[in-house]
Amino acid sequence: MGQLEDMQAFIRIVEAGGIGPAAEQMGIAPSAISRRLALLESRLGVTLINRTTRTSKITEVGQTYYTRSLQVINEVTELNTITTDPDCSIHGTLRLSAPLSFGLSHLARALDTFAKEHPELTLDIDFSDHEIDLIEGGFDLAFRIGKLNDSSLKARRISPIRFNICASPEYLKQHGTPKTPDDLKNHKLLRYALYGNNNWKLIDEKGQHHKINTTSKMIANNGDFLNDMAIAGHGILLTPTFISWKAIAMGELTPILQNYKLEDLYAYAVYPQTHYLSQRVRLLIDFLAERFGDNPYWDHELN
């Protein structure tokens, strides 16, 4: 038996809940599957599963090995399939991490279309604004917005992410409309918690940078919530246009300080540096790049 077979046996033990149930599922003697596990652990020099006569419990390193083993087995299976049948449909499981607001507002519709085009594919999606370790979490792909700091990952640019500063017409009527960045110091501001600091950076028409140290009335870790609070008149919001575009189009929010530029970011598809990028991941990246592109529909609506 080779290492791939031992990996498959280990996966079956974990998913079945023990050596006995795994042996029954595989139609072999418990002693045979126990021997495979022992050989795998000996080859690796670690304990993957702590076992007694009554219980089996996966170790921390075993959990990591299980997650990565699933990826390896899936990729080998897919590689074999597309080699023998290049026109076959994609299948297996694709694990994706995505930011919450963008994921629900924009990725959901994209993934709906993609899933219908590939009905044999299983999508396992984690929506979170916190950056997740792709390797440790066993993710094939992450959709990330911002600057990329992890050099262990590869990335493809999917779409620009533009920002604006806006407030409700009622708020501006009551408190006045800021004409310069300095005017923001006299207003109630709403801030996204994960930006990391209170500074808003604006660039005027002459290219001069203005760094505004803001005092926020309300801080939250969800952009949709802050968008709703801005609509309700609680203050001025700096927000991605992919969140504010509908409210602006409906007149619920009014962009301000439009003669000042804000730093644009980008959305990226990021994935581990592997020698073999699976067909399902490659197809999803191509699909998202084509769907959103350099002039995404939410910005097109604001032009």
Describe this structure in words.
- It is a single chain.
- With 303 residues, the chain is α/β, with parallel strands linked by helices.
- The protein is 42% helix and 25% strand.
- The protein contains eleven helices and 15 strands.
- A five-stranded mixed β-sheet has the order 4-3-5-15-6, with helices on one face. The protein has a five-stranded mixed β-sheet with strand order 11-8-12-7-13. Strands 10-9-14 form a three-stranded antiparallel β-sheet, with no helix packed on it.
- 29% of the residues are buried.
Compact overview of the structure:
Helix content is 42%, strand content 25%. With 303 residues, it is α/β, with parallel strands linked by helices. α1 packs across α2, α1 packs across α3 and α2 (19-26) packs across α3 (30-44).
Main attributes of the structure:
303 residues, alpha/beta, single chain, 11 helices
Output mean pLDDT.
Answer: 86
Estimated helix fraction: 40-55%
Supply the helix-strand structural class: alpha/beta
Strand content bin = 25-35%
